[in-house]
Structure formats: C-alpha cells, structure tokens
Amino acid sequence: MQVYLSIPGAIFVSFTLILLIRNGGGLSMADKFEFVGTRLKFAEAELVCQNRSFDGLAVISSPEEFNYAIQATKQLRKKWGLWVALRFDLELQKLMWVDGTELAPNMPWLSSSPTPSANNPCARIHVSGVMGMLPCSNRRYFICGNRIQTFEEAHGITHKSMKPFNISSTLAEHQVRSYKKCAILCSRQHLCHAAWFDTSFTCVLLRPDGYTGLENSQNAQTFVREGYIGYTE
C-alpha cells in the first residue's frame, strides 16, 4: 500500500489524500486498460478485447478509472467515441456495468443522449468526454479492460473537524482503527463519495446523493472523493 499526502497550505484543516492500494499483480491504472483506435460494433469490440487477453470491454465505474480514461483518450476522441462495458439490462430495465456493478448517479452524461432502452442499449464515451447511449450496431473505437480488481485508487480531500450533514442514506458502516483505513474502504467501492470517521472508530461510507454538505464536528474527519471530471459539450 502507498499513501501520498499533499498539503497545499491549509495545514491541519484539509489536505489532498491519494490512496493507491495494490493487490495481486496489478502495477498501475495503465496496466488495466488498452485503448483501441479501430471502429467496431459493440459485440465485435468485446470479442476483440477477449482475444487480446482482456476480460472484455472496460468497466470504468469509479471516478479514478473514468477520469484516467478521459485523460488518456483525448487524442483518440477527436474522431470517434469509445465503447465501454456499460449496457441497458432489458430484464432489470436499467443501466448496469457488465460485471454487475451499479452505475454511479454522478457520472457525467451527454445532454442530447438517447434514453437507455432496447433501441439504444450500449454506452460509449462521447467525443466530448461524457457518456452517451447508441445502438450496439454502430461502429466506434473502444476500451479493453480487465475487470478483476488488482488495485484500488482513490483521490480526494480530507476535511479535519468536519462531518457530513443532511444524511439521507448510507452505503455502509464499519468499525475501523484509523481514518486511513476508513478512506481505504471508500476506495474499494466505486459508489463511495465520502468516508466519515470519528473518535468512536466508526467509519460511515456515503454515496454522492446520500448527503448534502459538511458541517463542523470537532471529533470527526471526512474524506471526500474526487468526482467524475467529464467535459462539457
């Protein structure tokens, strides 16, 4: 495990926290993905990825994965968007990543994108750097990926003596020994947007839509994860 701390001036109030937890053989985010500049249909792209020894099209469900893909495809996206492993599930009637993970509510979307449906069931990164739906028969570039997590990475800000307020729902609650452990737990769930730790050793994980802001609390620390960057149209 590597933990990088950057303190840009607001010492003892807030600081940037970057967590990189490596499990197994994963070396970096770059090892997990391959960006392919050949236009194929969705199913064709999935097969090509598997033939290249990937699990298939890439799952980019976390903010860190999505933001990495957006930055890495700047040049490639000047011509075409890229398929990723996000589809409309006809049985569940909702968008799901193919590994079964839920779509984050704060992922950026193209305002003019068709509604996910049987007619437009496949998702791609649009040339503008946000998500959008298309028929699976369209031809686009694509991102291959390995779906088994060999590492977790989380970027965000630590707010000392602050806790979330107006909490409407929680993602999970744990007893942990340290704030760092609490932030690491957040890094392991792509839906986690904030991790609140206090002197009772309670760690509360929150979705982006599970609270509305932060308030003063002397005995608390809160890790607020970076969001999905996206680009505007």
UniProtKB/TrEMBL annotation:
<protein>
    <recommendedName>
        <fullName>C-type lectin domain-containing protein</fullName>
    </recommendedName>
</protein>
<dbReference type="InterPro" id="IPR016187">
    <property type="entry name" value="CTDL_fold"/>
</dbReference>
<dbReference type="Pfam" id="PF00059">
    <property type="entry name" value="Lectin_C"/>
</dbReference>
<dbReference type="InterPro" id="IPR001304">
    <property type="entry name" value="C-type_lectin-like"/>
</dbReference>
<feature type="domain" description="C-type lectin">
    <location>
        <begin position="33"/>
        <end position="145"/>
    </location>
</feature>
<dbReference type="InterPro" id="IPR016186">
    <property type="entry name" value="C-type_lectin-like/link_sf"/>
</dbReference>
